[in-house]
Amino acid sequence: MIQTIVSTDLPVDEKWQIRKNVLTGGTGKKRICIVTGTHGDELEGQYVCYRLNRMVAEHPEWLDGTLEIYPALNPLGIDSITRGIPGFDLDMNRIFPGAEEGTMAESLVHRLMLDLQGADMVIDIHSSNIFLREIPQVRINVNTADRLVPYAQWLRMDFIWVHEAATVLESTLAHSLNSLGTPVLVVEMGVGMRINHGYCERLVDGILHLMYQMGMWRELPDLSRSPQESIVSGIGGVEFVNAEASGVFLTENRNNELVEQGEEIGCIVSPLTGETLQRVTAPARGLMFTLRAYPVVYEGSLLARIYKM
Amino acid sequence: MKEEIIYSMSSPFRDDFRIRGFRFGEGEKTLAVVGSLRGDEVQQLHTCAQLVKTLQQIEKRKGLTDGVEILVIPSANPFSMNIGKRFWAMDGTDINRMFPGYRLGETTQRIADALFKALQGYQYGVQMASSYVAGCYMPHVKLLHTGYEDIQTAGLFGLPYVCVRQPLPFDTTLLNYNWQIWETKAYSLYGGSNSTLDMQVSREVQSAVVRFMERVGLTVADCRPSAGYRPVVFDESELVCIKAPVSGIFFAFRKAGDMVNEGDLLAHIIHPYKGTVEAVITAPAGGRLFFSSDKFLALQSAPLFKICTA
């Protein structure tokens, strides 16, 4: 059943709506919410939402509980290829939990929070941005790791990044809901403005597996495409590789590779002079789980992230 | 005056990115002033440019107090301004939400780091800022409540209002917040609208900085500007916010700076197709219009006016 959880008039003959599809089955009381499209340039979640809808349509008898699918938290952004909310300065994922009496965007996320609160699990799907390519991973704040890592393992992603807490991240959807006792797992995979079908299929399997483990899906999904266990990072185990020159980043590497310390992972070149401005090497041996996708770089642009192993 | 490059970075295809600073006097790091961090803060740039001109004149006639050093950085983001974007041209990130910065981090973190290093250690820090809630504002000093904010000295600018904001998590990466944490008395000066240049407001804000300098003893007597205002001090949450009850074409009869009485007509919201008045906006309380939306279209629930009743 399609439900509109937020509907606000735009100035000219249009409503700003956030919709969800509520799918119920069996007698189970548990509720899982799949949310995506916070950033308008991230599209991987669209495929996942589509496939989950299809799975339930094909096998309604396997669902025991409520699956709620929110494909577009930022519909104006997705429709206009805008990362944020068009016409609003702040990143939508930096204004949670919002405020009823705040700006329109703050009031909107406040209503969204009320709708999500109380779910047994929320999966918040992101796909990095247009600049970086990510392997399928779950990101968890260290303060919630004990509680959430076991759930994250059921998603069977390649990597679980337990990262340090930062005050500014307290205004994300995940932090806000986790603080209220509603568990949220943040999934990152792929690259902005594109859909990697393989990654999405794996996440669909993972979500169904999580639901199976939570007693919400009666059929154990085929997990042959996924690892038996995700690699879980320790705090401080991730090395960031940033550009030290401005130019064009060229690489033959792919992410999800084990790289050796000192191994060349790409170079930054000057198209004007033909010079190699920087040979980019791995600062440590480990799993390269992030790799630059957009070639033009400035000093400081993130090129790769490596989990030290 | 000494002109210097505070930070430079090569670009893949454009000219080098440069942050330029103008230093006056020699001695204790006393006052740092920063103009535009965003590409649409033209008024903030202009105000700083005028301040540079004024400080040159003051310095020429030996009007600066001995032993003080003043740094003015009119723009920390010429790249965005030159191509008409508010945020960092490459990735849309906001330099003013990257403080204290990180030397080994992403591009705008590095810019923030270099800028913050240049700005640290000053007794007073002034930022010509703009709000994420776009519209027209009465000239005012804004302070984030960090426990280190100095409301008394904020009044020395002589602007009509001093506004204190309770910081949200996303405010903790602002320059004003971090300046305070690093023991600089920090003030953000607002006035007018984004992407416009209101010469009167610009002059008022520039005069406020000169007044402040005089009052904290950075200049000698012959630079004395007008007395300015005895400011009204309030918490941002005390403003009476009037939101749009419906969406439509916004037709305002009053604007920021106007005094209004309870019940006064402020605006109409007009149906975009039929031309009928869908909402009559009146003042729920008397006071000064501190903020007015400068959009021609109103979104339902968006703030249209804020009244200072103090």
Radius of gyration of chain A: 20 Å
Count of discrete alpha- or pi-helical segments spanning 4 or more residues of chain B: 6
Rg for CA atoms of chain B: 20 Å
User: Roughly what is the average pLDDT of chain A, rounded to an integer?
Assistant: 95
Spatial separation of the terminal alpha carbons of chain B: 42 Å
> What are the low-pLDDT stretches of chain B, counting only 5+ consecutive residues below 50?
none
In terms of DSSP E residues, the strand content of chain A is: 25-35%
Number of strands of chain A: 17
Uncertain runs of chain A are none
* Top-tier CATH class of the largest domain in chain B: Alpha Beta
What order do the SSEs of chain B take from the amino end to the carboxyl end, as H and E? Answer: EEEHEHHEEHEHEHEEEEEEEEE
Q: What portion of residues of chain B is helical?
A: 10-25%
String of helices and strands of chain A: EEEHEHHEEHEHEHEEEEEEEEE
Task: Give a brief rundown of this model.
The complex is a heterodimer of chains A (309) and B (310). Chain A is an alpha/beta fold and 309 residues long. Chain A is 22% helix and 33% strand.
Q: Could you explain the architecture of this structure?
A:
The complex is a heterodimer of chains A (309) and B (310). Chain A is an alpha/beta fold and 309 residues long. Chain A contains 6 helices and 17 strands. Chain A is globular. Chain A folds into 2 domains: 2-232, Zn peptidases (Aminopeptidase); 238-308, Beta Barrel (OB fold (Dihydrolipoamide Acetyltransferase, E2P)). In chain A, 22% of the residues lie in helices and 33% in strands. Chain A has helices at residues 44-58, 75-79, 104-116, 145-154, 173-179, 197-213, and strands spanning 2-10, 14-25, 31-36, 65-70, 121-126, 132-141, 159-163, 184-190, 231-232, 238-242, 247-250, 257-259, 264-269, 276-281, 286-292, 296-297, 302-308. Chain B is α/β, with parallel strands linked by helices. Chain B folds into 2 domains: 2-236, Zn peptidases (Aminopeptidase, 3-Layer(aba) Sandwich), CATH 3.40.630.10; 239-308, OB fold (Dihydrolipoamide Acetyltransferase, E2P) (Beta Barrel). In chain B, 21% of the residues lie in helices and 33% in strands. In chain B, the strands form 2 sheets. In chain B, strands 1, 2, 3, 4, 5, 6, 7, 8, 9, 10, 12, 15 and 17 form a 13-stranded mixed sheet that branches. Chain B has a 4-stranded antiparallel sheet with strand order 14-13-11-16, with no helix packed on it. In chain B, β13 (265-270) and β14 (277-282) form a beta hairpin. Chain B is globular. The N and C termini of chain B lie far apart (42 Å). The A-B interface holds A 8-13, 16, 83-84, 88-90, 94-95, 101, 103-104, 107, 129, 131, 167-171, 240, 242, 245-248, 296-302 and B 9-13, 86, 90-92, 94, 97, 104-110, 132-134, 168-170, 172-173, 241, 246-249, 272-273, 297-303.
